[in-house]
Amino acid sequence: MRWLNLTIAALLLAWPVHAELRPYGSERIALVPLPAAAAAKPLNAKVRYAGGYQVVAQGTSQVMGLSDLEIADGQVTALSDLGAVVRFPLDGGAAKIDLLRDRDGKTSINRDFNDAEDLATGPDGTRYVSFERLHRVMVYAPGAAWSATPTQLSLPGLPALPNNEGLEGLAWLDGQLLAGAESGGFWLCGVARPGCKAVAGPSVPGFMYKLVSLAPVPGRSDEVLALYRFYSPFSGPRSVLTRLRLTDGVLVKVEDMAAVAPPLAADNYEGVAAVKTDAGYRLYVISDSLADDGKPRLLMFDWTL
User: Taking every annotated instance into account, which residue ranges of this chain make up the domain Phytase-like (predicted)?
Assistant: First the structure.
């Protein structure tokens, strides 16, 4: 048998090596510009498409299924519905990836447990992550690492939700958490005194549209951005972004902001964020891509005041 072992060893040494070995911690993100395009039917004269990128990960397979994002100090923090938090510079570069833990301190590869959907940050820096399938909101204390064990927010008053159409939207609004379900409905949920109360909200932008993300408008404590998704196998995905305002306890639509449809890079956009600029705001949407390679897309819109 020794000759067989020597033969196998020789074949292995002669076999061409195509995969590059990367040390742990070498994950990087490259932002590859998408082809230039212009919105075919702009919904708002004050909102202009400002370009987009394909998010290409190197050294990791964790950067897919991105379902929400926040942007602060030039850094992107994105949630994955594979149970990870991905952080990288807005212009690309080294990435940091953490697996989210449940209240037992364990990570999971089971989508029923790790399907993270939306991220909200309170004024004190507390972070809240909504999950669907096993519907819950997990809480990360200010300054806590993403790899830390979170606590679970008590949500009495929140109804039972369909398995895969749960809390897709979560945003800090008027001193509370605004939660929105893909299956329909909005709730204001307290933090100091837990409990959720249903609030009336606007109808979806059209037939078969569903809510997929909520994000605060910086500097406006009573306003949020709401991202809606439509999908048909005949036309592909479409997205509509609107602005909502909490008025006298009712969530009302202020205006449409933008639509994502061809010739823009239509995809399964599931996350939205806004950053204040000198001229107004820059709006970002990110996708849980439907492409075969699963690479997310990041689109930008400039809202001029």
Answer: 62-183
pLDDT tens digits for range 285-300: 999 998 888 999 999 9
Provide φ and ψ at 77, rounded to 5°: -115, 115
Structure token digits, residue 304: 């001029």
Q: Is the pTM of this model over 0.70?
A: yes
Residue 106: Cβ-neighbour burial (10 angstroms; 0-12, 13-18, 19+): exposed
Omega before 263 within 30 of 0, i.e. cis: yes
DSSP characters over 78-147: EEETTTEEEEEETT-EE-EEEE---TTS-----HHHH-EEEEEE-TTS-EEEEETTTTEEEEE-TT--TT
CB 180 within 8 A of CB 167: yes
The amino acid sitting at 178 is L
Contact between 149 and 199 under an 8 Å Cβ cutoff? The reply is: no
Count the neighbouring beta carbons within 10 Å of the beta carbon of residue 232.
10
Calculate the CA dihedral of residues 265, 270, 275, 281 and round it to 10 degrees. Answer: 50
- Quick: pLDDT tens for 217-256: 999 999 999 999 999 999 999 999 999 999 999 999 999 9
Taken in order of first residue, the domains within the chain and their CATH numbers are 31-304 (2.115.10)
Sheet of 66-72: strand order equals 66-72, 75-80, 84-89, 96-99
Per DSSP bridges, beta strands 66-72 and 75-80 are antiparallel
